[in-house]
Amino acid sequence: LTARPGRSTTRIVRTRVLVFGASGYSGLELLRWLARHPRAEVAGASSERWAGRPVGGPIAGWPGGLHFEPHPALLERAVEGAIAFLATPAETSLSLAPALLSRGARVIDLSGAFRLRRAEAYPEWYGFEHPAPALLDQAAYGLPELFPEPGAPGAPAAPAAGGRLVANPGCYATAAILAIAPLLSAKLVDPAAPIVLDGKSGATGAGKKLEESMLFSEVAEAIRPYRVGKHQHTPEIEQALGLALGRPVALTFTAHLVPLRRGLVVSAYLRARAGLAGRGSGAPEIAEAYRAAYAGARFVRVRSEPPDPAGVAGTNICDVHAVLDPRTETLIAFGALDNLVKGAAGQAIQNMNRLLGLDPSTGLVAP
Ligand SMILES: NC(=O)c1ccc[n+]([C@@H]2O[C@H](COP(=O)([O-])OP(=O)(O)OC[C@H]3O[C@@H](n4cnc5c(N)ncnc54)[C@H](OP(=O)(O)O)[C@@H]3O)[C@@H](O)[C@H]2O)c1
Questions:
Q1: What SS3 state is found at 79?
Q2: What Cα–Cα distance (Å) separates residue 162 from each residue in 158, 223, 345?
Q3: What is the CB-side half-sphere exposure of residue 207 using CA atoms within 13 A?
Q4: If you measure from the C-alpha of residue 317 to the centroid of ligand 1, how many angstroms do you get, rounded to a whole number?
Q5: Looking at ligand 1, which residue's alpha carbon is closest to its atom 32?
Q6: Closest Cα partner for 294 from 186, 191, 198?
Q7: What b/e readout covers 134-149, taking b as 16+ CB neighbours within 10 angstroms?
Q8: What is the Cβ-side half-sphere exposure of residue 355, based on CA atoms within 13 angstroms?
């Protein structure tokens, strides 16, 4: 509330937000950004492990006196109009989201629980039968740069003001879709050829759970392919790219764990459409495709060189670049981002801004 003598009073309305799973990597990152958000007030943060401890403990500069509380206690405090961020495992989001929606809260889920349109895909990729398929139709896929308006039936839509459930995209999926989709939409790619995607991510991408394979001595100085042929972001990427291409897409994706704390890069290999190779490695159609997709986008930078996640660490920005290899008629597209920001918490706040009708960059400007 700002009041000055002789001036009218301006009332700044802050929306109450709740963060479930606040002790995890994405949850803590959410709290860090939300602490500086001018239109959000963190009204609660949940963790069983850290219940009773002050939120200011792990977060330097935390402004208030909030304490972590058990998940059920926070659920009880969800009120009409509040925004709940779920930085929880997918199985947990499946039960929290309906409970929160029934209390009138809006939900932004960082897990994969509501990202896929087809309930039948969940047993194969997530290992559970989806208990609430009706919510899959209601969930907006929160990648605002590519799905800015509610789309055609069956299309993932960005969260519009008034929406209630947002499925925040996966980290690899965000980088891959932002790098590849414009090339498909611009018809620079042979639509019949499969797409090959390689991803490399730092250790925070795996979350905080204790696992022998994530010990320092196992991760340091190692590069480890994982979940080969069954990474859960595969159908999510296929779903979004299928919409960009206008027909189903087949994707081969291998993720690698690399010894970084945060950050990821994806490299995609796509068969160029007939005739494109003759235009040379820097075919102007590539830059044109990105320009058409990202004119005015605040959080996608089109680079003239392959990107490095170090260049976007701590920001909500995804860097993209593509080049043509005329010898093999292959388009190589790259995306790099910070998995905890544009790949998780930052994009979730971008989606909150969208729900609240705020400027997309509110609270997301990083030094
Ligand atoms: N890490 C990334 O780069 C990234 C990127 C995009 C999306 N995501 C997604 O975001 C979600 C969180 O990932 P993360 O990496 O931040 O995980 P994490 O570091 O392992 O943290 C998980 C959080 O979930 C809480 N939790 C665990 N079981 C719970 C339950 N039964 N009920 C309520 N809360 C529970 C934990 O709280 P306690 O203190 O109670 O244990 C913890 O705060 C996951 O769905 C993940 O797929 C992660």
A1: coil
A2: 11, 44, 21
A3: 15
A4: 22
A5: 92
A6: 186
A7: ebbeebbbbbbbbbee
A8: 29
Q: Is 208 in the pocket of ligand 1 (CB under 6 A)?
A: yes
Q: Six-digit token pair at 358?
A: 């705020």
Ligand 1 atom closest to the Cα of residue 204 is 1
Of residues 11 and 70, the one with the higher pLDDT is 70
Tens-place pLDDT, residues 103-122: 999 999 999 999 999 999 99
In the reported structure, the alpha carbon of residue 47 is separated from the centroid of ligand 1 by a whole-number distance in angstroms of 10
What is the spatial distance between Cα 113 and Cα 365, in angstroms, rounded to a whole number? Answer: 29
Question: Is residue 71 in contact with ligand 1, taking CB distance under 6 Å?
Answer: yes
CA-nearest residue for atom 22, ligand 1, is 24
C-alpha 310 chain-centroid distance: 18
3-state secondary structure of 101: helix
- 25 touches ligand 1 (CB under 6 Å): yes
Interior/surface letters 224-260, b for 16+ CB within 10 angstroms, e for the rest? eeeeeeebbbbbbbbbbbbbbbeeebebebbbbbbeb
74-96 average pLDDT score: 96
Cα of 176 vs centre of ligand 1, distance in Å, is 22
Close Cβ partners of 18 (under 8 Å, ≥ 6 residues apart): 42, 43, 44, 45, 46, 74, 77, 78, 82, 83, 84, 85, 105
Q: What is the pLDDT of residues 246-275, one digit of tens each?
A: 999 999 999 999 999 999 999 999 999 999
Give the CA dihedral 85, 262, 90, 145, nearest 10 degrees.
60
* Dihedral angle of Cα 117, 119, 125, 130, to the nearest 10 degrees: 130
